[in-house]
């Protein structure tokens, strides 16, 4: 249930009651961004987004939103875009009021102190240096060359120390002026979502958001209209994955009414047979595609089709564009029932998002589609009328060109204009749109069967989950080949109302299948047929995808690289050659000596069915007898892995030092697991305050409880442009040791509150049946006992002190991951 209303001060509020949600979320949207900052202060909007988190009139220190939210298990962030900014968080529903009060005060009455300003400009400067090697950022910056208007598309807006200067007082005054000019109800809007009734959400908005100043009559200036450059084709030299960007300038299509773009994204990213992506992959020119919305304003938007190419030479790009143009021409043939079918798929995907991601998607990207909207067809046609060649600009990204640097948006871009671009002439592929009708026929079941665990639930449709058994490592190469091989089958399953996925969750590869009985049986049969004889084209797709994944493990943000390496390390997936050199020397495939056909490594897999009936269990157990691996054959316990080295180093790009420390449980007991979660909730805000605020060691500073690859532990992660790995590690150790004092003085009521919060979190049940099954699976396949609301121990201060001592004393169990910066 959703309701939109206007408060007495003029603030527009969208309230969404979701009775099944376990968490609540809030998002403030400001209709001003980097294109609205004064030209003499590039980066001011970005800086303001940062500084408001540093404290407000009524909430300072550990009571401000940032510190308080971390202690309460909330997730929060902010985003500055060219013409908009947003601050958002989600939190256990019972804590929404306390968090919302802090957010409103933060935006209405920020302190904007000199100390916070000085600190955040160093953080933004480090961010800028990191972004100079980020391919996505550089591609987006290149739009400044492709469009003559608005001029702000080419202007610098990230911010650096050099641009902000040394006069902190002048900068502080500029921030105050920005606050005064834009932060009123004429520019702000609010979204609240939670399980609370609409009336309760409305009362919260009235109670707290009423302090926001009313509009002063001075509206945000209208942005310049979009005008494409006469030169429409550009090439950007970049060592990352080759790609092609086809961008269109759109009039009268904005984020507020962009559901037609959501429909377009659903069609462009469809992976089923006869889709655009299926045709591109069959021709071997493109592996993946996505739809981006890099710019949106009151005077138009830019939408970009991004294609990940299979080769660095021009034919891969021109052939991709040829097939795309043919597909674009077929979109006008979609009937209203077909449009409604794809709208329904988009609605299903939106429903799976977390509360805060629903708000973010609605505010900044691709809002939900109403299949019953009578204007759906007319809005769709209006969009198609603008997706024409004369309204398009190209950006070809490849390492194989020569180009001089051009400074656009403050980034040195090796960018060249290509005057003689022409697309390939080839026979158009066969394309089709769904629904295609039900073509299912029941497969013949094998005589053999496997033991398939069946867990009863209130889910009428079954959910089948398979995962490599603990101690079995699925190599990255084969994980990507599996993903590539199952894409079309998964998309066909989605079109029929089911779901098939093969993804990593909490560091474990999970194959998940759900739907009605007939659909699950047919989809599993198709899956097994595919795995029995993998086509060379699909293996090649997976190989390329694996190469890109390995490259990302070095070229991504340093701390993110280490986070992605951690589950591989714990699961034994990483070969010894990957440490230090990260050569990716994986030679794990099995080859049939008779015919040279490569087959999936035969691992031991666990499998279980959640929900469904006995007939479904029987059919699936027979089909799984032909799965390329042993199903539920392992009956011995596997112990948690132990680090074989005092430190694992991985190369990354950039000059920043990064350290990731993962401290697993010291014993496999419910008491230890509860203690680790409580200690993590105590540590998280204090760790951020110490290293990020007081010492300003790094711009990425986080501490949290984490479960990955079956292990539970406390994670510390820091990325710093100013400190070495050794210095960061020393700071983390000192912090952990000094927490003994905080634990010794923890108040009884605080300990009770932390335990109660842990129990409440365990009592929350996601509404999505697939997620419920997945959560049960993950809880059953860990090295620690699963906690339930009934089994959470009531820890005393003495017990918590005992476990903290164990944490400090058993450092040999710590997993230390560090990076070797490229410059070293």
TrEMBL record:
Ranges of residues in domain Coenzyme PQQ synthesis protein F N-terminal lobe: 242-395
Domain Coenzyme PQQ synthesis protein F C-terminal lobe: 481-573
Domain of life (superkingdom): Bacteria
Any Pfam family matching the protein: PqqF-like_C_4
Residue ranges constituting the Peptidase M16 N-terminal domain according to the UniProt record: 13-146
Any one Gene Ontology molecular-function term assigned to this protein's record: zinc ion binding
Gene Ontology terms describing biological process: proteolysis; pyrroloquinoline quinone biosynthetic process
Ranges where the Coenzyme PQQ synthesis protein F-like C-terminal lobe domain occurs: 679-777
Keywords for the protein's UniProt record, in alphabetical order: Hydrolase, Metal-binding, Metalloprotease, Protease, Zinc
Gene3D superfamilies: Metalloenzyme, LuxS/M16 peptidase-like
SUPFAM superfamilies according to UniProt: LuxS/MPP-like metallohydrolase
Keyword Calcium: no
Alphabetized PANTHER family for the sequence: INSULIN-DEGRADING ENZYME-RELATED, NARDILYSIN
NCBIfam families cross-referenced by the UniProt entry: PQQ_syn_pqqF
Family of this protein: Belongs to the peptidase M16 family.
Protein name (Swiss-Prot/TrEMBL): Coenzyme PQQ biosynthesis protein PqqF
Organism in which the protein naturally occurs: Rouxiella badensis
């Amino acid at each position: 249930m959703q309701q939109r209303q206007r408060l007495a001060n003029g603030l527009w509020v969208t309230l969404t009651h979701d009775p099944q949600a376990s968490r609540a979320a809030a998002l403030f949207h400001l209709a001003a961004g980097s294109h609205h900052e004064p030209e003499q202060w590039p980066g001011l909007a970005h800086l303001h987004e940062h500084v408001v988190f540093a404290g407000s009139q009524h909430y300072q220190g550990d009571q401000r939103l940032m510190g308080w939210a971390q202690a309460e298990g909330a997730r929060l962030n902010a985003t500055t875009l060219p013409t908009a900014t947003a601050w958002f968080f989600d939190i256990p529903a019972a804590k929404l009021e306390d968090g919302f009060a802090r957010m409103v005060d933060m935006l209405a009455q920020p302190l904007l102190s000199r100390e916070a300003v000085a600190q955040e400009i160093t953080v933004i400067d480090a961010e800028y240096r990191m972004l100079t090697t980020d391919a996505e950022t550089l591609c987006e910056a290149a739009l400044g060359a492709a469009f003559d208007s608005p001029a702000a598309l080419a202007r610098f807006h990230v911010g650096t120390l050099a641009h902000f200067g040394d006069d902190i007082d002048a900068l502080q005054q500029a921030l105050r002026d920005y606050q005064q000019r834009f932060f009123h109800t004429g520019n702000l809007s609010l979204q609240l979502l939670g399980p609370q009734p609409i009336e309760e959400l409305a009362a919260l908005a009235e109670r707290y958001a009423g302090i926001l100043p009313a509009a002063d009559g001075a509206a945000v200036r209208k942005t310049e209209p979009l005008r494409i450059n006469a030169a429409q084709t550009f090439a950007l030299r970049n060592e990352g994955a080759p790609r092609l960007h086809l961008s269109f300038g759109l009039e009268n299509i904005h984020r507020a009414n962009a559901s037609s773009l959501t429909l377009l994204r659903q069609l462009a990213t469809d992976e089923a047979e006869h889709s655009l992506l299926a045709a591109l992959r069959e021709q071997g020119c493109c592996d993946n595609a996505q739809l981006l919305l890099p710019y949106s304003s009151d005077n138009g938007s830019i939408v970009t089709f991004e294609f990940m190419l299979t080769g660095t030479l021009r034919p891969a790009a021109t052939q991709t564009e040829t097939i795309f143009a043919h597909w674009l021409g077929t979109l006008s043939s979609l009937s209203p029932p077909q449009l409604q079918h794809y709208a329904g798929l988009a609605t299903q995907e939106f429903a799976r998002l977390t509360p805060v991601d629903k708000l973010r998607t609605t505010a900044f990207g691709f809002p939900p589609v109403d299949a019953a909207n009578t204007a759906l067809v007319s809005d769709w046609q209006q969009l198609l009328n603008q997706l024409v060649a004369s309204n398009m600009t190209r950006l070809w990204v490849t390492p194989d060109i020569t180009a001089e640097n051009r400074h656009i948006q403050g980034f040195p871009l090796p960018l060249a204009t290509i005057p003689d671009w022409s697309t390939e002439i080839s026979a158009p592929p066969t394309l089709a749109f769904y629904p295609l009708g039900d073509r299912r026929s029941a497969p013949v079941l094998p005589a053999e069967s496997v033991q398939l665990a069946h867990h009863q639930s209130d889910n009428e449709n079954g959910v089948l989950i398979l995962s490599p058994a603990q101690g079995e490592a699925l190599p990255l190469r084969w994980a990507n080949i599996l993903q590539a091989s199952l894409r079309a089958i998964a998309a066909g399953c989605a079109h029929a109302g089911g779901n098939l996925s093969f993804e990593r969750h909490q560091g474990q590869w999970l194959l998940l299948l759900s739907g009605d009985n007939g659909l699950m049986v047919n989809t599993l049969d198709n899956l097994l047929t595919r795995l029995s004889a993998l086509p060379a084209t699909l293996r090649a797709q997976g190989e390329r995808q694996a190469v890109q994944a390995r490259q990302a493990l070095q070229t991504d943000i340093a701390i993110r690289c280490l986070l992605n390496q951690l589950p591989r390390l714990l699961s034994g997936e990483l070969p010894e050659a990957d440490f230090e050199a990260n050569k990716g020397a994986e030679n794990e495939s099995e080859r049939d000596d008779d015919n040279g056909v490569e087959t999936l490594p035969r691992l031991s897999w666990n499998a279980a069915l959640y929900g469904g009936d006995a007939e479904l269990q029987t059919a699936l157990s027979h089909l799984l007898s032909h799965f390329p691996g042993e199903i539920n054959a392992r009956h011995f316990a596997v112990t948690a892995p132990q680090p074989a080295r005092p430190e694992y180093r991985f190369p990354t790009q950039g000059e920043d030092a990064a350290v990731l420390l993962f401290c697993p449980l010291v014993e496999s007991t419910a008491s230890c697991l509860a203690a680790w979660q409580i200690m993590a909730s105590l540590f998280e805000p204090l760790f951020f305050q110490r290293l990020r605020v007081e010492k300003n060691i790094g711009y990425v500073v986080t501490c949290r409880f984490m479960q990955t690859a079956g292990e539970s532990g406390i994670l510390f992660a820091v990325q710093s442009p100013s400190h070495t790995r050794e210095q960061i590690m020393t700071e983390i150790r000192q912090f952990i040791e000094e927490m003994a004092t905080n634990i010794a003085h923890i108040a009884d009521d605080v300990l009770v509150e932390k335990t109660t919060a842990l129990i409440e979190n365990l009592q929350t049940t996601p509404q999505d049946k697939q997620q419920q099954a997945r959560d049960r699976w993950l809880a059953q396949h860990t090295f620690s006992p699963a906690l339930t609301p009934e089994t959470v121990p009531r820890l005393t201060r003495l017990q918590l002190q005992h476990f903290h001592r164990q944490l400090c004393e058993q450092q040999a169990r710590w997993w230390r991951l560090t990076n070797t910066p490229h410059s070293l």
